[in-house]
Predict the structure.
Amino acid sequence: MKRKLFTILSLTALLNFGLLSAQNNHNPHLGPDGFLHCGTDENMHNVFNERPDLKADYEARQTALEAQDAEAAQKGYPTQREANQPPVYIVPVVFHIIHDYGAENISDAQVLDQMRILNEDYRMLNSDISLVVPAFQNTTADCEIEFRLANVDPNGNCTNGIDRIASPETYIGDDGSKLNYWTRTKYLNVWVVKTISSGAAGYAYLPGTAPSASADGIIILSTYIGSIGTGNPSTSRALTHEVGHFLNLLHVWGSTNQPGVSCGNDQVSDTPVTKGWTTCNLNANDICTNNVEENVQNFLEYSYCSRMFTPGQKTRMRNALNSTPGQRDQLLANASSVINDPMNLCAPIADFGPFAPVFVCEGGSVNFSDLSSNGASSAWSWSFPGGTPNNSNVATPSIQYNTAGTYNVTLTASNASGSDNISRTNHVIVSPTTAQYQNTTFADSYESLATFNSDWFVYNPSGNAFTRVTNVAYTGSASVKMTNTSAMAGQKDELISPTINMSQISSPTFTFRVAFAQRTGTTDKLRVLASTDCGQTWTQRYIKSGAPLSTTSAQNGSFTPTQAQWRLETVSLNSTITSASNVRFKFEFTSDGGNNLYIDDINIAGPSGIDAPEMNIANFDVFPNPAQDNTLVAFNLTEKENVTVEVLDMTGRRVSLIQQGELQAGNYNFPLMSEGTLSSGIYIVRLMTADGRAVSRKLVVQ
C-alpha cells in the first residue's frame, strides 16, 4: 500500500546556478543542491493547522484516488481519449501581473510565450519530447488539456486575459498579494510577482486545499514566466509543473519539498518510486528499486530536464477537472462563457511612462511612452500643459519644458474598439536654473505647514506617505513622519527638498534628526541622495538599514519617539555637491514592514559660530552638535593670541583640555574628543585668552 500524502504541493521551478548566486544564503528554500525549492511544507502546515476540516477531506480523497489509480493501472491507462470524454479539455486562464513598473511588469509577448510552452507540454507537442529516455518513450502522454487566455472578464467586459495591477504587493508575494481575484469557477488565476516572501519560486494549492476561493490558483515569480524577456528556457517549464499541482499532481517522490531524502511516490502507478532528483541524472538512477529506472524527466521532478507526463498523471489531472474539490469541474463547464474564438480586439486601458513624477531643469526634455494594456493602441492623444509641444499624437513623444513650474500630463489611448484616458497631476516638476534658496544656511524644522507644502515634494506610490505631524518633534512641535506598517513591505517613499545653492555655504555640513524603531527581524532602509541636475539623476550620500537605523529597541506597537529616542545624523557631502549652485536632496525610505520613522531639524550650514572681535576671534563654533566622533571646535584668529580651549561641566569643573598656548593668526579646527570620551550630558566649550577674556558654546553629548 502506498504511503498517504497529506500536503499542499507548490511550485518547484529550478534556478540555474548563475541566477542563484544572488540569492540570500539564509533562504530556507535554497537547498544544498544549489537550487531554489518551493515552500510546500510550510503552506501545508499553515493551512491544515488552521483548517483541520480541509485536512480530513483531503486525506479521504487521496485514499479514494489511490484506489482509482490502482484500478486504472490494472486496465492499462488509456492512450487515446475515452469515448464519453470531450476531445480536449479547455481551461480559461487569467494572468494578474502585480508590478511596480519594473522588469516584473512583463510584456504581453512573454505571457503569450508562456502559454505556448504550457500548451505544448500538455499536448505532448514540446520539441524535446524526443529526448525522453528509452525506458519511458512508451509512457509519455498527451494530456489533451489546453489553456486559453480568457477574453471576457468577470463583469462581461472584453479582456486579453492579462490583468495589470501596480502595487507594492509585488515585493511580498503571498496569499495577500493575490489581487483582483477572478472567480475560480471560470478562471485559472495566475499571479505574477517580483518576489515571494517565503523565498520560494512560487506555489499552488491542490484541489480543495486552498484556505479560501480567492487564494486558489498559482503565484509565481516573473522570472519564471516564458522563455523570453525576464524569463529563460531553463525555467520556462515552471508553470507546467505548477499547473500539474493545481490539477492534483504530487511531486513524484512524495509529500515533501526535499527530494533525495527518502524514497516515495505520487500515488500514480506508472511513475516509479523515487527519492527525487535535483540533477538530470539519466544513467544509473535506479536508487529506490534495483533495475527500475526512475522518471527523472517528469514535469513534477526538480531535475531541470523535465519534458513529460505519464498516462497515469494524465488520468489524475483529467479526473480533477471532472471533480468538485476546488470547483475544478466548473472551469470546464464555464469555459465557453469566457472564451471567444477568435479573440476580440479589446479597447485599451490607458497607462504611460515615466510612471513616477519627473524632475527636470528649465529647458530640459522628457521622453514619454504609451504603456497601455488590454488592447493594442492605434491612436494617441497627449496633453502636456507647459510643454513644447503641448500636445502630441504619437506613441512616444519627447517634450521640452522651458518654464519652471509643476505640470500635469494626460493620455487618451484608442483603437477600433474604444478608448481610455489617464491623467497624472503634478507629474512634471521643472526647476528654475536659479536655486530657490540662496542663503548661507538652509534649515527646516517643519514648523510651518505653508513652507512644507511649498518647499517639499512627497512621492508616495501607494497611499502611505511622508506627512508633516504636529504631535511629535525633536525641536518645536512638528516633524515629518513616515507611517510604516507590515503591509508596506517593499514600498518605497520619497521626500524631496527644495533647490539649494550649496556654493553659497562655506564648508557646509548637512545634519538631520531621525527617530526609528524596527519591528522584530525587519530591515527597513533610509537613504539620502543628492542631485545637481534638478532631480534627473541622484547619487547616494547616506544609507542605514535595520538595526543601525534604529534609535531604540524593536517595537511591535506603533512607534512614537520620546525626546531621548532621536539621533543626530550627518550626510556626507563631496565637492561636486558643495560647489553646485542648484542642489536637491532626497530622503528615500524603503519599507520592510518595520515601524514608523520620523525626520526633523534639517540643517545645512558652515561653521558660522560666534564672533568676538574684541578678542580677535571670529566664527567660534562647535559642530556637529550634539557631539559625534568627528565633532570639531573651530575658530579664526585675526591676530596672534595665547588661548586656552577647554570643556567644562555644568558645575564649572574642567573635564577636558583641548588647546593651551600661543597660536598664530589663522583658522583652527581641533577635534573635540582628542582628550578622551565625554559621558552623556551638557557641557560648556570655552575659549579664553591669557588676560581672561572668554567666549563659549553649549555642547550636548548623547
Summary: The chain has ten helices and 35 strands. Confidence is low (pLDDT under 50) at residues 1-25.
